[in-house]
Amino acid sequence: MDYFFIGDSELVTAFRFIGINGAAVFNADTARAAFLRITRGWDDTAKAVLPGGVEGCRVLILTEEAADWLGNDLTEWQISGKYPLIVEIPGTMGRLPGRKSLVDSIREAVGVRV
Question: Which Pfam family is one of this chain's hits (predicted)?
Fold first, then answer.
């Protein structure tokens, strides 16, 4: 499995239609449980999936809301540089206030507005 999605149940269903498995989350506790299952589910020493874990996830797609619920856990994971890579998308209710769009982030990084 290359991709996995964590977010609201409607988007989990939508991602399943295109072949991406996911976990529906409803609060910080369920988001953290799903996140830990993906990020810490593989045991390199044993070369096996830990009970409840998911093997082979290279890209983890999260809604912005789920990302907010994860807080420091998500930040620490991103800083570690390990797989899966994290991609945040708006949820079904749209972009959260104060979040930059991908285009805004690219413009800021490159310093060019076209």
Answer: ATP-synt_F
Domain span holding position 104: 3-110
For residue 33, what are its two tokens?
């449980």
Contact by Cβ (8 Å): 63, 11: yes
**Helices and strands (H and E) in the chain: how many:** 5, 6
Structural domain tally of the chain?
1
Q: What is the pTM of this model?
A: 0.73
Helix 72-80 and helix 28-39: axis angle, to 10°?
20
19-31 pLDDT, tens digit per residue, is: 999 999 999 999 9
| 75: CATH | 3.40.50.10580
DSSP one-letter code for 55: S
* Integer Cα distance of 11 and 15 in angstroms: 6
CB 70 within 8 A of CB 59: no
Tokens of 75: 């930040």
